[in-house]
Amino acid sequence: RVRRPRPRRPTRRRKFARTVARARTQSCFDSGEGTRTERRQKAAMLSLQIKEAKAREADGSLGAGGGGLSAAFGNMKLQRRNTLDMSSKPPTPTAEPRGFVDYLQDNERANRDYVEGVPRSLEQAIFTPPSRVGSFFAAESPMGSLPTGSLQSNFLSADTKFLPEPMLPAEREKKIREAKQTPTFELVRKVNKLQHLMHAATDKGQTLRRQLLSGAVVVIICAGYSGKRFIYERAKELGVRLVIIDGPDSWSQTLVEDGVIEKFMPLDMSDPGAVFHEAVKLLKEIDAESGGIDGICTFWEVAVPLVARLAESLGLPGNPSLAVDTARDKYLTRKALEEADLPTPSSCMIYCKEDIPKAASAVGFPAVIKPVNGAASLGVVKVSSMEDLTQAYAKVMDIMSMCSV
Asked: Does residue 16 surpass a pLDDT of 80?
């Protein structure tokens, strides 16, 4: 039997010899003494250090000595052409101190899927009376003092038929090119030579991104439920100037008094057909006051199609509205995958109860029935037979009739 030779264990003498060799190498680097090979190694290391220092100065990497990025930003300040000082303006007054509303927060799956939905009635909405604004996150009380119709005024419709048609890619790119450059984007252009650093997953790249982000004006459309407050607090810490557009009784207007956001602008959402145009008017007002809007975003699913179209209309970067509509519709997503020759499960669209046999024949069992829109697994049911499918269809239709997703 052939046995692999056992590796030699370092003896005390060998350990001592290695220690002496390392000490001699280090001393030759410090004193310039040593063998010819050691001196060449020292010269090569010094040459490499000089090249790295020159490279840092040339490409603008962060470093000591006042060069690189620090020099690039030395005399460059973010000056905004404000016609009004947003930070000194008082909070936007409401018609009367009648409290604030919040989204319905339901947790039916043991903290696994958090459901953020639109209340189906005034009694179901979360309400905080004016006397408890300072302790907004205390126990909520049922809605009671808001006038009839406030529910429609404060919550956005999920129906996209009231929104403009998505822009074509060429039209969208033209809008972006023709849009005026805000101070933040001008700053990005001035440090364009650091493009590689902007996308680097390093501490230096993060520092650069935070410097560019500081002072940017970002508009939030629909703040979502009050549990998302931490998002806006973190943005404030990063130096982002936030403006929130939401329903006239939204809880988010309390963030102005707390110094988290700079401005709250109410938007009446009772008329779905007018929401887009009214939002555009508010955005133009913000743009004039702040010296330029750098971005529009939302943290509520239903507002994503509206935000995509608002960004397109102002020539701001964002998700294309056509892509948003496709991604939020599961049937359109499957069709897009099939057209791109990407693998996708077999599926069939059920438009009415009469389409159930056709769907069962096309897909087979077991199968899953789910709505084309939705979140948090609402209305997703596994079926194993025609009887299960018929019962699940009626159940899903009942669930979706009470939701806004």
From this structure: no
3-class secondary-structure state, position 369: strand
State pLDDT tens for residues 351-376. Answer: 999 999 999 999 999 999 998 887 66
Q: How far is CA 177 from the centre of its chain?
A: 23
Alpha carbons 38 and 24: distance in angstroms, whole number = 10
Could you tell me which residues come within 8 angstroms of residue 353 by beta carbon, excluding any fewer than 6 positions away? 393
Does this model's pTM top 0.85? My answer is no
Separation of alpha carbons 192 and 124, rounded Å: 51
The residue behind tokens 């330029």 is: 292
- Contact between 251 and 101 under an 8 Å Cβ cutoff? The reply is yes
Q: Quick count: other Cβ atoms within 10 Å of Cβ 317? A: 13
CA distance 380 to 393: 10
Determine the length of the chain.
Answer: 405
393, 353 in Cβ contact below 8 A?
Answer: yes
- Which DSSP symbol is given to 95? S
User: Which amino acid type is present at position 146?
Assistant: L
DSSP-assigned letter for residue 392: H
Give, to the nearest 10 degrees, the angle between helix 12-31 and helix 36-59: 60
- For residue 296, report the phi and psi dihedrals to the nearest 5 degrees: -130, 135
Q: What are the beta bridge partners of residue 368?
A: 382
**Structure token pair of residue 47:** 């040459």
Q: How far apart are the first and last CA of the chain?
A: 72
User: For 153, phi and psi rounded to 5 degrees?
Assistant: -75, -25
On whether the CB atoms of residues 310 and 355 are closer than 8 A, the answer is: no
Q: What is the DSSP letter of 271?
A: -
Determine contact, residues 363/348, Cβ cutoff 8 Å.
Answer: yes
